Amino acid sequence: NNLIQHMKQLALSLLSFMILFACNGQRDVSTDLTPQEFRTKMAAQKNAVLIDVRTAEEVQRGKIKGQINMDLYSPEFNMLIKGMDKNKPYYLYCATGVRSAKAAKFMRNEGFSEVYTLAGGIQAWRAAGLPVQ
Question: Annotated catalytic, 23?
Fold first, then answer.
C-alpha cells in the first residue's frame, strides 16, 4: 500500500513538472542573467529581494550588498522559502550558479512568479568588476 501511494505521488510530481515545463514558454518565471543584467534589473525593482544561497562561511569571504543569506543546504531553507511573498521579484546567487539554479527551480515549483539567477554566481560578478562587500 505504501508503494502504491509512493508511485501515485511520484506520478503526480512528474505530471506537475511536465505541466510546469510545458507552460514555461508562455511565461518567463526564471531567467539566468549576466552580472550586468542582474545588477541593472534588480536595481530597477524597488521590492526586489536578493538571496545568497551559499553557506555562512562563504558569505564571510564576500557578498553582494543588500543580500539575505539563506543557505540552500540548511534544514530550514525550504520552510523559509515557503513563507516568503510569492509575488515579489527574487534575485538568487551562489558561488558559480549551480545552487542558485536549484533554489530557483524549487521556488518555481512552489509558485513564485518572478525568480532570477546570476549566471556564473559571485565568481562572474567579481570577474565583471562589480562591487563585493
Answer: no
